Amino acid sequence: MSSRDRDTKSLQDKLKVFFKKGASAPLAAQNELVVTADLRKELSPESPLSRRLRAVKELGDKVLHIRVQDIGPFLLEWLPQLQSTAHIIDFVQLITNVVKFNAVYLDEEIVHGIVNNSCHLCVYSADSGVVLGCLSLLEAVVSYSLLPRTALPTFVAALCRTVNVEHYCQNSWKLMRNVMGADLGHAALQELVEMLRGEGGEGGGLLRGAVFYINMALWGPRRVHSLHVSPLAVLPAFLKALGGRQAVVTYEVVVSLQSLVARAPLDLHELCWDVLLDIVRAVLHHDSQ
């Protein structure tokens, strides 16, 4: 077997491994592009250049017959099935390119599913390449205004967790800032507030992320100016979040209050100060116990 034949066989084997769901579930025959012996002969180095070019053109025409409308369901079906980290990273990059250049073929239901799967990988994957790839995919979805309103809770919750990891903090804040500065900004802020008002079942990391985003968006150094929201609208949620007695949440609340008083003192009227002092008292009470 020649070196060229070995390389060709190796490539075919790699493609088969990448695109197979399992030994018991081969691809449907009607979706396969069969490479016949005649086609191999036409594409071989021994074949004249003109015949090879014609064969390549005919092969390309067959590939173009694949319905582009089917690309969305295909991506959504395969993303949760991949196990190899390298395959996940490559596939996420493929989806990102589809979002950027062929978003017209992705309906809202498909985008919702892609966002859900990407958020799941952001939260549960231990590989930084996978997480950063998924954050880039989500950024593409947001940049092209494709994020469905129904996917917002999952999206916001995932970013509240990734922002706690130093390696993903800047990317997460950039992505959240883009969302909060767009049409879904107030809805995203409401999701954050609702998290803090929960019944205490949420994890400390989730609540800490929510406090961080509210702080940064409303009165931080790069605040979102399109959000015209009084501190009084969110401070009671900070007080409620302290009820879980989680140290990381308490710390983030204190940092946020310090930033609020230092950066936006003129936005604090009498009622705001009342709630702010209630929060300080709650923090001191927790510390004393």
Write a structural description.
Residues 49-286 form the Tuberin N-terminal domain. With 289 residues, this protein is mainly α. It has a domain at 1-66. The chain contains 14 helices and no strands. The longest helix has 19 residues, at 270-288. It starts with a helix and ends with a helix. The model is unreliable at 18-30 (pLDDT under 50).
Which key phrases capture this entry?
single chain; 289 residues; mainly alpha
State the gist of this model.
With 289 residues, the protein is mainly α. It has helices at 3-18, 37-43, 49-64, 71-78, 85-101, 108-124, 128-143, 152-162, 166-180, 185-196, 204-219, 235-241, 247-263, 270-288.
